[in-house]
Amino acid sequence: MRNFNDVYYKIKSSDCSDLLKMYKKDMLLKIFFTVLFIGFILLIYNLEIELVYKNLFLMSSIILFIILIRNFHLRSYSNLYKKYVISKIIENFDESFRFNPQYSISPSTYLDGDFEQHFDRYHSEDCILGKFNKTFPFEMGEVKTEVKYEDYDIEHHTLDRSYHTLFDGLFIKIKQDKVIPCTIYIRKKLLFSKSLFVPSNKTLNKKNIANTLFEEIDMDDSDFEKLYFVKTDNRILTMQIFTSSLLRYIVDFKTKYKIIPEITIKKEKIYLRFSINTTLFEPHPLKSPLSYSEVQRQYIFINSIMQICKDLIKNINEIEL
Amino acid sequence: MYIFIIIILLILIYIIVQYNIFVSLKKKLERSKSGIDIYLSQRFDLIPNLVECVKQYSSYEQSTLDSITRNRTKYMETKNLKDASILNSQCNSILLQGENYPDLKADEQFLYLEKTLSKMENQLQAAKRIYNIDVTKYNTYIYSFPSSIIANLFHFEEAELFEAEEDSKENPSIS
Prior knowledge:
The structure holds 2 protein chains of 2 kinds. By secondary structure, chain A is of the alpha+beta class. Chain A is built from 10 helices and 9 strands. Chain A has a domain of 223 residues. In chain B, helix 1 runs antiparallel to helix 7. The longest helix of chain B has 43 residues. The interface between A and B is medium-sized, with 14 and 16 residues.
């Protein structure tokens, strides 16, 4: 694996003229919409409406406009950014890694991680496939799951239907070659209770496994304990895999990125998910896609995620069964 | 009058609940400790084989080997954690003899024992961590208020943490 400066040099020295053209086009469009919006604001301001309502409307419009302009990117610009920048960063971690914006993680793979029991809508894109450490099949991609809520009247007619996001972020699956004879769930603590923990009784009863097989255990890092609860059917193996240094790394990751990773280990498969509510691997709304700080931001984030995967695999490999 | 009875009942219920919490924490602690005992016993059962193996190839002092055998017998009787720590570090020092005696290191029996003991050591470290977590939780409950009142009332005493062996506290020298 090369260091960041080498990766940055490689990205910069490649022919990115298409990407820079699209960046300029994207910025021009943003400037155009900003000018239109300013004209709209001035128009509203000159109307004869009560000042209070005018100010309220203007404030909410400005906030909405800022949110939209931050998240707005031309689709072609995003795709080129992923092709020229993201894929180069990812390929640096392993020669076998390939970035496939069109490929998606299958719903069955996602469900196998036992993060959720059920969803009504599923979407996945921007997949990275390859072999971790040149050996273990590796899949990483963006996943979004939603659940449907419906309101009915007395005659059971649907009055309203809405979708609530269950998860929006990064999902990883690694299949390593050592079969660990246990299942481990690391889940973030929720505000109200662990009743939202999956697998709940429904999943376990479906598979006819007694709930008592999984006990909740404490870990020896107080910051980790504040963020997570751990359920497993083998305390010793869990402690061997989740060493003090790995627990500390996960806590530091959360402190730095405000993202709490969740982990499932089932026999030889490792599943991780990172709930990130902004779009991943998207260019900065204003900065150049090839700016040093911007590329470094993506590199450090991907590197931190890979480090968690590496540490897990290393600890599992060190266990003698 | 009724209020007074309700208050007494509430206090009694509180005492019962707290007592049961202490009992479950203590039982959890005992379970963790027995986990360590199991791994230690498994490890120490291999000591006679290890001593025999080392005797054949090295000029390791007979008195040291005898001391290890005696400590093992003592631990099997007392199941004391401190005795276990001493014995564990003696066991590790014998394994290190492999570095000084190439013939010993090449011996199949020694290699098998080394691998098995190393595996057990890793499991033991994990068991110790679990034990220390349970002890910390139990001790914290003993010292926290108002559960400390119940602890004093029913004589629940602080448990000992499993400390690192003396030789592992020193940084190994590279020479």
